[in-house]
User: What shape does this take?
Amino acid sequence: MATHPGARNLDDDCAVIEFGGEALVLTHDMMAEGIHYIAGQDPADVAWKLVATNISDLAAKGAEPVGVLLGYMLGHDDARFLSGLEEALAHYGAPLLGGDSISGHGPQVLGLTAIGRATHRPVPSRSGARPGDRLYITGQVGAAMLGLEALRSGRGDSRAYRRPTALLAQGQALAPHVSAMMDVSDGLLLDASRIARASRITLSIDSKAVPIATPEDRRAEALRWGDDYQLLFTAPAEASLPIPAHEIGEALPGSAELLLLDGLPLGDSARLGYEHG
Amino acid sequence: MATHPGARNLDDDCAVIEFGGEALVLTHDMMAEGIHYIAGQDPADVAWKLVATNISDLAAKGAEPVGVLLGYMLGHDDARFLSGLEEALAHYGAPLLGGDSISGHGPQVLGLTAIGRATHRPVPSRSGARPGDRLYITGQVGAAMLGLEALRSGRGDSRAYRRPTALLAQGQALAPHVSAMMDVSDGLLLDASRIARASRITLSIDSKAVPIATPEDRRAEALRWGDDYQLLFTAPAEASLPIPAHEIGEALPGSAELLLLDGLPLGDSARLGYEHG
Assistant: This one.
């Protein structure tokens, strides 16, 4: 979920390994109370989000869920957590295979490992974008930002923040057509820069083409806020996409800049998004 | 690592699932500072233990490691943690496949998911012990208890607590011969009762036959203390074991008691061991 230079490769992507002639896709995300969710937030929502964020990683690989392992620190309402967990796991067809539960002294910390099976080879990665490819996103960004504001203020619809959707079916449909794919968890610009870096290209993004859930005057924020879990992908210009998606830019040959936003360099990662963690 | 009634099946065992015609073995353990390790303990030792406890779960399934995913909360010396992690992963031949790292406000919490491949079918479980089987343990219990005391007092050898050994080769060798197997993480008596419950038998244990690392006057404690990671298993009386092991009891038909210790019932789980968690 977050990135730290010291922990090499921990946050890069799902792990994809060959196992029994198939591609096993593995991902693990942690969430800490007070950092990734609000202390006192409904545990059912926390459970949903923990599941959805991990399943979203599988979605970006075009994988189907095999199951999950839960690392659970007891909290203020474990029954409520379990009810949200069951709801999310049923929704995504991912059985609870096992895990561990502990009690703790401090803020609650949760971990989830999601296990999936790739439905298409090669398994989409971040590194396959080529100059000339087009850049797409499956839907709006900024909805989770508004949802968090609603949750904090107690006014408005907070669902997009509390109950994000992992785009499993879309990821599986797209996998045969994309050259690179990832889910947008840390902000569109930051995550796009990761595709650019991994693919050794420059991504040129047309900011006005990005669908946003916010008023127009908050477009810049929407492009930098995370937690929306849209799929961000590249595909050859001639690709016929199986689902609707918004073309928001194109891949250029690698240069000193990872991103161009409306033609201008965006070199400083501090301006790209949020590395909460 | 620990057991909570609310979290169903979380701590039962490794998950074993069919994947690509092979048996995939998955386990996830969490460790919290101040509960599973001492605040301020050498992070390299903490990393080693986190790896060893999870690999030990694979060992009890006769599995070989495929890799691990790490859930890492930044701590007081991340470089030292990574050095212990690398040492342990190299020792067990388990690559770091991915994971997540976060910062946190409270005591450090760590999670590790170990992924393995079963080397023998059927994969040993806790539920296969049959009346007439003999009960064995691979080595001494009580060593980790003495090690923890040494670590706390600053006197004596704390290695058995700090650097437990997962018995991977032994587990793989034993897998074709056992009727049930698990690793002793929470204490010999408590873990034996889990085999008895899962197998619907009674295990009769000869306490004097159990090899202990402690002086004789601490035998009762040694039988109840965890963290030694010996393999505890049952096998038919006529089985020819491929490695040395200590016969410490036998399986009787199921009764009201899960355990008999020197012929006497041990019905109260509170007297069986430590559920630190």
In short: The CA atoms of residues 186 and 274 of chain A lie 6 Å apart. Helices of chain A lie at 43-59, 78-92, 143-153, 159-162, 168-174, 188-199, 219-222. The radius of gyration of chain A is 18 Å. Chain A touches chain B through 58 residues (CB under 8 Å).
